[in-house]
Amino acid sequence: MSTFQELGLSEPLLRVLDSCGYEKPTPIQANAIPFILQGRDVIGAAQTGTGKTAAFALPTLQRLGSHASRPRCLVLVPTRELAMQVDENFKRYGSHADLRVTLLYGGVGYHTQVHSLKAGADIIVATPGRLFDLWERHHVHLDSIEVLILDEVDRMLDMGFIEDVSRIIRLCPKERQTLLFSATVEKSILNIAEWALRDPEIVDARSGATSAETVAHYVYPVESYQKYDLLLALLAKTDFKSVLVFTRTKRDADRITEWVRSTSHSVATMHADRAQNERAEALTGFKSGKYQVLVATDIAARGLDVRGISHVINYNVPDHPEDYVHRIGRTGRASEEGEAFTLFSPDELLYLQAIERLLCRPIERRKLEGFNYRFAPMMGTSAAAANTPARRRNR
Ligand code: AMP
């Protein structure tokens, strides 16, 4: 594999990467950086945890050079949390340069964001709704954008941002570089790419849509009414540093948080109904180790980069197979080891089979030794299929 130097990155960036402890480029970095440095449009197929943020941030910082008092790069991301993370990454990788990064997202007041735009931003990292809002109020102009980065586009479409995103793309000058990153590259993504990108180079860094290779993941079959007991038993028996528990609904997230709180574990919750300051506090507390357990809906499944998550537990089998890859991708990030457990009840069989089809292999079934199963757990994939549960999205 090539080195960062061979990819054409400048000396100051090489020094930053050295200080970050990155020894060699990840596949998405090795494949995308040379094209981005050439000014080419790129479609990057990569899930989080693959180093995709550095893949677009490093060459973009190099191309932007130094401060110019007008926004030249716009990064659109689906969630506030991801926006904060991308902002942090740009600041870290660009610490040697005098480029200014401005972060715009909803759920908070306008004053600070407007002020920071007025002070002169080179790079804007934004969620679509707030950016459009600020554009309508004439606080931000996009006619000087040279590089447009659309991150986690599949997620933005999934969250219903297609109209805002399309409008924003049209507000940017036609003469620009466009980089589109998405975990899945399906027809709806290619439809956008067709009109928004020019002769893009497609860089596929998904390891065959498989999950991060350092994650060992297992399914724990159990009747649904025993999931709660099994979750607590797993927490008690597992030697974990930090655990991210995913639930399908906000209500489940709240309930499970209450349960876990009644044990000796410190716990916080993150979902769309929590106020922005509560979500930020939960995340910061989880990152700092104040909370050992974070219970979250999928809003936290993508993009979040929390170092040292040792375990992910899916309380439900995700009903969209890609979500499974994203969820377990929260652990085992960039060469760290991780484990992911999925609690699986018979009514979720079709969802589990969809995940196994996506991964092209079965996931190992496990039984928790010493757990008082009321019914023998369903260990085989070939067990009779149950009814398809309704598809629900409740974040
Ligand atoms: P991302 O996929 O952009 O969310 O990045 C996942 C994690 O990998 C982040 O914590 C990065 O700091 C880290 N990372 C990115 N590139 C590298 C690299 N080349 N070597 C080691 N870690 C990296």
How would you sum up this structure, described in words?
- The protein is built from 14 helices and 14 strands.
- By secondary structure, the chain is an alpha/beta fold.
- It has 2 domains: 200 residues, P-loop containing nucleotide triphosphate hydrolases (Rossmann fold); 145 residues, P-loop containing nucleotide triphosphate hydrolases (Rossmann fold, 3-Layer(aba) Sandwich), CATH 3.40.50.300.
- The longest helix has 14 residues.
- The two termini are 40 Å apart.
Could you list some keywords that capture this structure?
Rossmann fold, 395 residues, seven-stranded parallel sheet, 2 domains, 14 strands, alpha/beta, binds adenosine monophosphate, disordered C terminus, globular
| Annotation, overall tally of beta strands | 14
CATH topology name of the largest domain:
Rossmann fold
Which stretches are low in confidence, meaning pLDDT under 50 for 5 or more residues running?
207-212, 382-395
Oligomer: single chain
| Fourth CATH level, the homologous superfamily of the largest domain | P-loop containing nucleotide triphosphate hydrolases
Order of helices and strands: HHEHEHEHEHEHHEHEEHEHEHEEHEHE
Bound molecules: adenosine monophosphate
Count of helical regions: 14
CATH class assignment of the largest domain:
Alpha Beta
Largest sheet: 7 strands, parallel
The gyration radius over C-alpha positions equals 21 Å
The figure for the number of domains is 2
What percentage of residues falls in helices of 4 or more residues? 25-40%
* Global geometry: globular
Query: What's the architecture of the largest domain, going by CATH?
Result: 3-Layer(aba) Sandwich
Cα(first) to Cα(last) distance is 40 Å
Residue share in β-strands: 15-25%
Strand order of the largest sheet: 3-4-2-5-6-1-7
| Mean pLDDT score | 87
